[in-house]
Amino acid sequence: MAAVLVLTVGLLVYQLVTGDFPLSLSRVLATLQGRGTAGEEFIVYNLRLPRALTAVLAGAAFGASGAVYQS
What we know:
The chain has about 70 residues and is an all-alpha fold. The chain has helices at about 1-15, 25-30, 40-70. About 80% of the residues lie in helices and about 0% in strands.
């Protein structure tokens, strides 16, 4: 379970730093702390973070529904 959690967080971070306009991990962390530029805030808050969180939550929902279905 811990390995899956670490892998999920790692892929979430990877999703936040890659894209058409790549950002370094330090710039993403600075943006999440409120110290990013306006362009970085738009990229992280409006484009990448919602998509990444939706993917994680949808995967968790599919996993939970599969567990309920099997029981």
